[in-house]
Structure to design on (275 residues):
């Protein structure tokens, strides 16, 4: 560290000598700061066996002007579980494959729910997300 | 920021004027606070046929937070190589037996569903989970 800065160690570690991994905060090392954390409803159309059915999409504007680092979770068909991005709702297996996915760009976090199954009715999924003040892009 | 708070900038940046991207810390923005980290391995039975249902094991990690916490999980399932860990993972769905780890949380548990699409035998799958105090939604 230079002549100035700020470090906080975990309990039980000497801040003057401990490794970075044993520090809670170090002003030489960036940390993930949460920009937005919210939830949003996603209307998913009925799946009829044809392409373009059984999908739902929502854009969340983030105003960061770059594609940000994010985490997403989805309430799908299971009554209480939130599924991590790209996880299949295993309560629907076998036979129906429902999953939430996402991407970020310089304008939006885009949430997508896709269904592939046995003529499932339309339903409302919920996307939960955290957007961080850090880039996912190159 | 209001009339009070704490901000720390990266070296070389003026904390009074720099962008939020150049702050190491700002009390205006929440951060991920680890609650529970754990790891393990589980032997998952073979798929019942080359294109049949996958072998499956479900692990439940009790967090008891009373709300749905931010969680991140890694496992080795899709790679069939226990040195390679992926956070979000499934491979081959539909009529093909998937490998993968499907993950969910509720108010009490973290659920780790491990799948083995290999019909030639059971597999040992490694996993690691991170549960944070941060509440979703």
């Amino acid at each position: 560290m230079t002549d100035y800065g700020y470090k906080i160690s975990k309990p039980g570690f000497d801040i003057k000598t401990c490794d970075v991994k044993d520090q809670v905060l170090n002003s030489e090392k960036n940390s993930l700061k949460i920009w937005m954390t919210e939830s949003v409803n996603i209307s998913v159309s009925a799946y009829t066996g044809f392409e373009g059915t059984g999908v739902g999409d929502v854009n969340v504007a983030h105003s960061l002007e770059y594609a940000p680092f994010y985490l997403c979770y989805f309430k799908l068909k299971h009554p209480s579980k939130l599924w991590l991005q790209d996880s299949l709702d295993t309560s629907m297996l076998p036979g129906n494959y429902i999953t939430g996915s996402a991407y970020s760009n310089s304008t939006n976090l885009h949430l997508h729910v896709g269904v592939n199954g046995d003529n499932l009715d339309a339903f409302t999924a919920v996307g939960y997300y955290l957007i961080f003040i850090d880039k996912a892009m190159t | 920021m209001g009339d009070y708070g704490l901000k720390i900038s990266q070296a070389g940046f003026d904390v009074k004027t720099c962008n939020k991207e150049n702050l190491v810390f700002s009390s205006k923005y929440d951060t991920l606070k680890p609650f529970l980290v754990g790891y393990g391995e589980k032997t998952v039975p073979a798929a019942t046929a080359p294109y049949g249902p996958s072998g499956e094991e479900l692990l439940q990690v009790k967090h008891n937070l009373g709300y749905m916490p931010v969680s991140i999980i890694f496992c080795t399932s899709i790679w069939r190589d226990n040195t390679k860990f992926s956070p979000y993972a499934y491979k081959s769905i539909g009529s093909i037996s998937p490998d993968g780890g499907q993950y969910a949380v509720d108010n009490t548990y973290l659920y780790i569903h491990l799948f083995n699409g290999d019909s030639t035998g059971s597999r040992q799958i490694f996993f690691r989970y991170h549960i944070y105090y941060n509440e979703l939604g």
Notes: The mean pLDDT of chain A is 90.
